[in-house]
Protein 1
Amino acid sequence: MRTPRESERDSAFLDYYRCPSDVGAIGTLPGVSAEDGYFRFGGSIGFGRFAGGLPAAYATDNLTDVSAAATIIDGRAWLPFDLSQVATNLRRERYRRNGNDLLQKTTSGGIAQRLYYLLRPLMGVGVRKHLQKIRLRNWEKIPFPQWPVDRTVDSLMEGAMGIALAAQGGPIPFIWFWPDGAPACAMMTHDVEGQAGIDFCEALMDIDDSFAIKSAFQLIPEGHEETWQATAARLRRRGFEVNLHDLNHDGLLFADKNEFLVRARRINRYAREFGCDGFRSGVMYREQDWFSAFEFSYDMSVPNAAHLEPQRGGCCTVMPYFVGDILELPLTTVQDYTLFHILNDYSTALWERQIDLISRHHGLISIISHPDYLVGERERAVYLDLLRHLNERRARGLWIALPGEVNRWWRNRRQMTLVADGDTWRIEGPDADRARVAYASLTGERVTYSLSPPARTAASA
Ligand SMILES: [Zn+2]
């Protein structure tokens, strides 16, 4: 049963920080435009309706900077745009995609896509790679979202926190993003594509276990009913997680709304029958506005910046977020197949760069590698380097978790509240013993976070 939930429209900031609602109330100034468009808010880009300028059609246009219009009235922060609306536009990819828009349209959901998937079994990897390279041409020229990691939503939240801090005149407590004060979170996932992948699962579990990393395997249900349970049991017995990977992986899940609804019912049935809480679509195809048809708990099908995916766009955040009742755990790093076969890169340099950018901003490092593509020795060596790198970061506090654990934490965090306790704050709610009170404060113009109360100044003592 679905339970009614509070409106998403006015809660994005509070959901993000879980700060006390009175200090975190952000108002929207009157006079916002009738049309959505790009604008600038200091160092970040927004997309939606805003006051004080003309909405731009493209992220590369000369954008109106509305940051000077942000103001404080009666001790409360007001923005010249609706932060929740803008955050939803970005996360749900409702902004106008520009750069290779025509290519994007002709290769996803259309006749070309159907043809490609019909012919795919007949093509060798060489032909597929060649076609993919043509399709992805000029990807590095796409101006928005930002490559290799986009934090637009997160930096808008920080900008809003800056105004709230100025309004408050002191630090604002909030519930830290990850349990036990971990600086960031990482999850390893493996999409199993074909028989070669299924055959390699055992060896891949050995590799992951040798680094004490448990991962999640996504298995295609339809057409594999006979063997699905046995494969899943082998994985689960060793403490690995199993989720659904698409329905039948024909690349057409979101091609037609009516057909999608029929397929979603079948996916929901498999999720119940196989006991799966999580899902990832084939080829990262997605239509977030249709997710309400799904009954599983979390999805992992939305890239952060999808320049190198067949369906372009991206959710512009490194944090989990809710799409109705579904928690989205976005893909925030490049896929192994893309790295090896499109970029022809057999190093961890790009992965490490992305991991560093996400870690510095306390986000979710989410990784896909395919057992099917790790069979080769050269690819496997790169994967081992990646695990080594993650373990080095774990020694410095990184929380490496299963998607199911991240889902549980993020859902519990949403139910936690900060309660004033004399001079200090405590957290109440499920899993509260693992939660930490954090403090946002202004260091010059910059918003900074800390896990201990900032030193009191003489004025506030
Ligand atoms: Zn797949």
Protein 2
Amino acid sequence: MAELWPDQGGPFINYISGPPSEMWRREQVHGLVLLGSTGSIGCSALDVVAAHPKAFNIVGLACARNIERLAKQALKWRPTHLAVLDDEAAKGIQALLPADYHPHILVGREGYATLAALPEASTVLSAQVGAAGLNGTLSAVLAGKVVCLANKESLVLAGDLIRRICTQTGAVILPVDSEHNAIFQCLAGRGQEITRLILTASGGPFRGKTSQELRRVTPKQALQHPNWSMGAKITIDSATLMNKGLEIIEAYHLYGVPAERIKVLVHPQSVVHSLVELTDGSQIAQLSMPDMHLAIAACLLWPRCESVNVPPLDLTAKSLTFYEPDEEVFPCLRLARTALDGRGGRCVVLNAANEAAVELFLAERCSFMDIPRLIAATLNIYDTTMPGHQSLCSVSAAETNATKSSLEKEAQTLAHRIASLDEQSRDRVYSMARHGGFPC
Ligand SMILES: NC(=O)c1ccc[n+]([C@@H]2O[C@H](COP(=O)([O-])OP(=O)(O)OC[C@H]3O[C@@H](n4cnc5c(N)ncnc54)[C@H](OP(=O)(O)O)[C@@H]3O)[C@@H](O)[C@H]2O)c1
């Protein structure tokens, strides 16, 4: 099977982890923990398990507060452990379970970390939303698990650290994000001859729009993704193209490829999920229906390829088109590249400011076009006033978590403060960001 693993020794590809151990491969049944089981990825993962029930034993499920959905899942799969965000949710879930079923109920960050490290699980799906997902990912890699990683923010926030821990513990990362999973499949057995990775982007609901047209778009319009059905946060990120920006950072950490060798192409049909370019100029692509069940199954069932009831692709049904993204109208792509240039804390600030801006937009407290501007302004202020954080470089998991949390809080507070300024002051802050080299 080693030939299925991306080459780790080539000049361009330096994959984040080694392949799964022989012991994991020989397991007839993988003990499985699903972090974020009630979300879009989590529910699709349970569909994959339902299509291959003999391959998995679900030992843990986790949500934040959607205890009704968690209770339904728990009743069906009867895991020994559940985890929720707080004591109120813990009390609530207990009350929803029948008298003859007593799983351990774990609570909060500690609870998610314990769940991700359960000895009876060899495999963990990390699918909690946003920066909150890093805690579970770190716990799983520290415990040496095979981690099916949907939570891209984990790599954005702590990619270097995760790489280092994988080397120490033998943990394995399998990429669930469809673009990165496509690249993983295209890279099988290759390394030396790769020159570029090409990430495709649907362009989201506002593809082709001008800045003028985007000034008044509503959260409802931004939540209408043309091709994918996903959670709210990633749907807004797709509309601003920040999702693709985060994916550039994710690809950089996963594949050890310099950012300038990671290209983005808009491909509205979402059929070609990504490509790799070889030294002779040829390209290898992975194509399928736009359905996350496929990428999730490719990880959970790795290295097998089995049906998960997604119809085969009919290439006569669609014409496929590709073009360059408009980075003037969608500056989040450049902002992500700029953050990656600075490394260290800049990616944490980018992510935190983005999470704050998306929340503000969904609450109708800022406009769609304010999202990149708030991120740019926060990055600019961070660069000029918080240089002490520049060296956020993963000394240990605990230290990274602590530094990251304080940096995140500062960045989110800043983004909120800027959003609440009057229009004139806000424009001045945005203009300072542009002068500071942050496009918006
Ligand atoms: N959806 C996709 O197609 C897709 C594709 C590629 C990558 N991803 C990535 O996968 C991750 C999950 O995305 P999603 O679309 O599945 O999100 P989602 O539908 O919003 O689900 C998020 C999950 O995380 C839980 N959660 C929310 N806040 C939490 C917190 N503070 N602590 C712990 N758990 C929390 C939610 O629980 P409750 O239900 O109780 O709120 C839910 O189970 C994201 O990082 C996203 O970027 C998603």
